Amino acid sequence: MADEELMALVAALDADAFEVVYDRHCGPAFALAFRICGSRPAADDVCQEAFLAAWRSAVRFDPRAGSVRGWLLTIVHNRAIDHLRRATRVRDRTISDDTAAERLAGPDDTEASALAAHAADEAAGLLERLPDEQRQVVELAFFSGYSHSEIAELLDLPLGTVKTRMRRGLERLRNHLQEVHG
Amino acid sequence: MTHCDDPHIDDLLAPFALGACPDAEADLVRGHLVGCAACRDTLAQLSIGRDALLTDVPDRAPSAALKAQVMDRVRAESELFGAATPRRAPAPAPSRFGWLRRPLPMLATAAALLVAVLVGVSQLGGGDGTPGSRTVPAQVDTAQAPRGSAHLVVEGGRGRLVVAGLPDPGRGRVYEVWLRSAGGTPRPTSALFSVDRTGAGETAVPGDISGVDQVLVTSEPSGGSTSPSRVPLVVATV
Hints:
The structure holds two protein chains of two kinds. Chain A is an all-alpha fold. Chain A contains ten helices and no strands. The two termini of chain A are 28 Å apart. In chain A, 46% of the residues are buried. At the A-B interface, helix 2, helix 3, helix 4, helix 7 and helix 8 of A face helix 1, helix 3 and helix 4 of B.
């Protein structure tokens, strides 16, 4: 049964249909939550919240707006970023943020290099296709939950520069995907 | 890619796509998108890359315990709100009393099984006396409120819930009103209320309830919840 058909059953409170949806999408959902939150317990909490939110709002899913997976992962992303923002303040952000900010550090900085290597382990293919300056702002926004003004402050850049780099980064990703998939 | 005539909004589309706009700016963009096809088209193009990032992460397998936690809650809510599940024994035909007949896993003991109590319409007369209004009697869980009663006054698509004899919800807790339509899951509302020393209370039901099938009340932590955490105390079938 297709995801959209299952969601119609889920909207009618069919728990068995929801279990199928869960089994199909829990892997990518957990992976995304872990990528953002950085720990298994936090990713567990986020996924539980997200899947329960999806269960309770299934009646609002509109197949014309996108896939079930895209809808679910957007819920997971939003919950994960909310969790991250609740858990830390801007000045107290942890290793992943320092890592992103330190990507342009010189090779003499041992700690920065180690942190950059950690982030590189986590970064997957798409982001690696962006120039460092674009990847940095996209990563800080999408995976660390910073606003554009916070990123400008963190990187000591003009706000307009941050917005431009975000735009060019997303356009470059779109162009790459269209080349790959046609 | 087309560009909007409003450079300020056009400038915000990439941050908006990445979730990097503060709430006020995000609301501004959402409002603008309603009437600007150019910006909707631009956002759709930017979202291609953004959506791909959702799955562009290293694989990590969730634990079996996570699934158990999620599905336990899902099945409890499915039972609670009267869904038919194919693998289970056939459920009775949906009725206003259906949720009362099923064993409710959230209740601690058999003594806490719900018993429906109808408040006689004859005791209430024709609503609150206002022409055009009608009164809907509500079912009250006597296990939670042995002396409780409630009714919903409906007038012109608006509702007002009136309760009596309900226990104080408790320290750090409040009564929350939920709306349920078309057999779906209950939707939270902003209607949070408590009761006086006699157990009496009243609250307006937010919004137009013309398309609503049921108005429910549960006890929730102060500030309300996004999903019911307890068995409904009051159910009014509109």
